[in-house]
Amino acid sequence: MSWYNKRLAKSIWVYHMSASPCNNCDIEILDLLTPKYDIERFGIKLVGSVRHADVILLSGVLNQKVAPQVEKIYEQAAKPCFVVGVGTCPASGCCFKDSYNTVEKREDVIPINLYIPGCPPKPEAMIEGVVKLVGVLNA
Questions:
Q1: Residues contacting 125, CB < 8 A, separation 6+
Q2: SS3 65
Q3: Which of 135, 139, 118 has the alpha carbon at shortest distance from 42?
Q4: Taking the model in full, what pTM does it have?
Q5: How far apart, in whole angstroms, are the C-alpha atoms of residue 30 and residue 104?
Q6: N or C: at which end does the chain have fewer Cβ atoms within 10 angstroms?
Q7: 71-91 pLDDT per residue, tens
Q8: Strands 55-59, 44-46: pairing kind
Q9: How far apart are CA 135 and CA 118, in angstroms?
């Protein structure tokens, strides 16, 4: 598996999955593709299908309505597929953590390998998180 991870670290294809976000994190994720940050220079490309993805960027809170769809989409991804939770919502539920509709155990729905905190996280924090993931893949 390590040879695959080293090859993967050179060109990561990312799929953006919105659970039930407020769109702040989504705007910051899209900001990564602008010429100011240009994350493609690191070999990271945003893809339109989860079947082509190596990494899933998950934003938003997992609630009872979207959890089955998130799980279904994750099952369609080629394995190994790493999941990065972007923002405070996937990490702790943010202001929705005590809501009746949120899923109690996010790990039962989808395994999240890395969390990038912030509400919304800055693009620099997301780049740092992806660089840490690349470092783990190269180890």
A1: 116, 117, 118
A2: coil
A3: 135
A4: 0.85
A5: 29
A6: N
A7: 999 999 998 888 999 988 888
A8: unpaired
A9: 21
